[in-house]
Design brief:
By secondary structure, the protein is an alpha/beta fold. The protein has helices at residues 2-7, 14-23, 37-53, 68-76, 92-98, 124-137, 153-168, 182-193, 206-218, 252-267, and strands at 26-31, 56-61, 82-85, 105-108, 118-121, 143-148, 175-178, 200-203, 228-231, 246-249, 277-279, 283-285. Strand 8 (200-203), helix 9 (206-218) and strand 9 form a beta-alpha-beta unit.
């Protein structure tokens, strides 16, 4: 683990902190991919806020578990003032490696599994619970939750909220786990619809929600008359789908902007600030994919 830091020529001591966090006026932004609309919107929020505070952004893409040690080695050795992390899925070794960085780290639209780092996002469990409960109160009983195959903590929390609402109502839960790959989604959703017909589908990503909606309509199901679909992002794609997708509006631009603002507090020389989990408000934007 420490070998990476040594190989990169970086020594996490007080002098290094002085060089890294007092003079570079640069912040590292670590993302899992650049292909998602939500990522680009969050980056824009970060960039706009960084411009106001006089910081530059250095982008790192951590898109492979095989290369993540090298990526994080480069991040830590890059002499930045702070780090904004958009992906809370990482190996234990890499997570331990982050402990050695002398600069603040904030999880953006994610949560650290420890209290070591701050984060900015919504109350994910409450969100999953409230949206599920709303659909139950509308008379729906067969409610399916679509989440990622990989265990992102924020998605796990939304699932937890969903399960709580279903259990309280005495209803049977139904969870689909799939990847972010379109072809795999289509295969998984087609297989599912061969066996079951849900009344409501909640999906952690708009892309998954729209993919499910498209497959359902190809198979002859009417949306929203027979199947209602809700996404949990409200990206620009939600209004391009047919019918337009009802979404939980997670304000991803604001999350990015707020994360940058919170990071500047942690980077100040003369103020001792403890990392905190900052929550922002969300709302449901009702469109044509629900009744």
């Amino acid at each position: 683990m420490l070998k990476i830091i040594k190989d990169k020529g970086y020594k996490p001591n007080a002098n290094a902190r002085g060089l890294a966090s007092r003079k570079s006026t640069t912040v590292a932004v670590v993302v899992p991919t650049l292909k998602r609309a939500s990522i680009s919107e969050m980056i824009q929020g970060i960039v706009d806020s960084a411009n106001e505070y006089g910081y530059m952004i250095r982008l790192f893409v951590n898109d492979s578990t095989e290369n993540e040690k090298d990526v994080w080695g480069n991040v830590i050795a890059s002499s930045v003032d702070g780090i904004l992390l958009m992906n809370n899925e990482m190996s234990r070794d890499v997570f331990q490696l982050i402990q050695y960085t002398p600069v603040p780290v904030i999880f953006v639209n994610g949560i650290s599994r420890t209290k070591t780092f701050g984060s900015v996002g919504i109350n994910y469990e409450k969100c999953g619970y409230e949206v599920t409960k709303q659909m139950i109160e509308k008379g729906n009983k067969k409610i399916t939750f679509v989440t990622t195959l990989h265990p992102y903590l924020v998605n796990e929390l939304m699932v937890k909220g969903y399960l709580k609402a279903m259990e309280e109502a005495g209803l049977e839960s139904d969870i689909i786990k799939t990847t972010g790959v379109l072809e795999q989604n289509e295969h998984d959703f087609t297989t599912y619809l061969n066996e079951k017909t849900p009344e409501v589908v909640l999906a952690v990503r708009d892309s998954m929600a729209i993919s499910f909606m498209n497959i359902a309509q190809k198979r002859g199901f009417k949306v929203p008359e027979q199947v209602q679909v809700i996404g949990f992002q409200n990206t620009r794609y939600s209004e391009l789908s047919y019918p337009k997708l009802t979404c939980v509006d997670i304000p991803i631009y604001d999350i990015g902007s707020t994360a940058m603002s919170e990071l500047t507090k942690l980077m100040k020389e003369d103020v001792e600030v403890k990392p905190a989990h900052v929550t922002v408000d969300y709302k449901v934007v009702w469109r044509d994919s629900t009744k």
